[in-house]
């Protein structure tokens, strides 16, 4: 039997499965994540009983002497992922709530294993290399699951006055690893009693008719920016943007 597909057109199926949600405290991040199909929360803030979805508390547990770890978050996450891969279950979404805390816990676990206080104490940059490898493996292992994956992050404010805006609080180098494997980045905001959501970044232009999961479709239909057509940037506009970026870089170097 040939491994080649039959040479005829087929109807495209293009449903996003990896999501990054960020916003300030009480802006509706976890509420939105609970709307995803059959979610399992990997919770870091000790608030797992405050939501209706099943949850596992993610944490490092120190030995009685306080020097080593009785339970490492690295091993705990690995065990959970293997269970989701190999056991019979009905989960369709895994939610990391919040990824900021998971990154801190990964650092703590590596430092505890090496008997140091910080990653920098592990010589020749080895500590940072170990962390990057562990985080990349976590992200890739989650992505390889036949499930939706939702990362939740807190937000911090950048800029001042009218230029102030919220960005993910996850460190940029860590955000790039996680976001590099996300299909959609969604920002949540609370204004008075109103909750607002919008897409701030996406891997590609999604076409509504090509999304074959009705629950995912219902969520995306209520978030502006998912199906927006990309805006073509002229050569002149591109040159202007590049010049502005270069000017900012020059100003910052002074």
Automatic annotation (TrEMBL):
Protein name, per record: NTP-binding protein
Species for this entry: Companilactobacillus zhachilii
